[in-house]
Amino acid sequence: MVIDPGQDAVADLDALLGEHRLKPVAVLLTHGHIDHVWSVAPVCGARDVPAWIHPEDRDLLSDPAKGFSPQTGQVFGGLKLSEPDDVRELADGAVLSLAGLELTVEHRPGHTRGSVTFRTPVEDFQVLFAGDLLFAGSIGRTDLPGGDHAAILRSLAKTLTLPDETTVLPGHGPQTTIGRERATNPFLRDVAPHAGPTRGL
């Protein structure tokens, strides 16, 4: 699975796929901002695979300027993107079975209205693909169209119920864990004051 192919992703992705002799089965999108969807149409089109996105962000696939302030949006005003031929909509709580893996979709609005996370099952080594919800030492911005600070705090509170050992792969920056962010992330002090569950308890 390819998650959030941004600008200039195609060449590096082609090299990686060729090196490891891999064939993608789908493109998964955590949200619709252009730095996460720029290359979705060419990646899907070249390999005839579907793209999955939450319906609240689907319009950003073809009109990325909607995701920015009017001033910033002017920069992308002439940019024409298109949807892939096969776009499928994500629903909260859905379980995707792709390439022998299962990922649970969780709608986590706040950064955008259609932001989602993808996580592997708890009983396995748990990984959370967080998009721009949670970063190492920070959280997603909420000052762009579709952003909502109160909503992202609610989304974070739900996400922080995951086990401390959960590996978080953010949309930007280094990986982290739920436990590390709960203990050290200054933006989460009022969101999750208590430790979360530990796997196996």
From TrEMBL:
Superkingdom of origin: Bacteria
Domain called Metallo-beta-lactamase: residue spans: 1-172
Q: Does the keyword Kinase apply?
A: no
Q: Which organism is it from?
A: Microbispora bryophytorum
Pfam families listed in its UniProt record? Lactamase_B
The alphabetical list of record keywords is: Hydrolase, Metal-binding, Zinc
Q: Which cofactor does it need?
A: Zn(2+)
GO MF: hydrolase activity; metal ion binding
Q: What is this protein called?
A: Hydrolase
Alphabetized InterPro entries for the sequence? MBL_Glyoxalase_II (IPR051453), Metallo-B-lactamas (IPR001279), RibonucZ/Hydroxyglut_hydro (IPR036866)
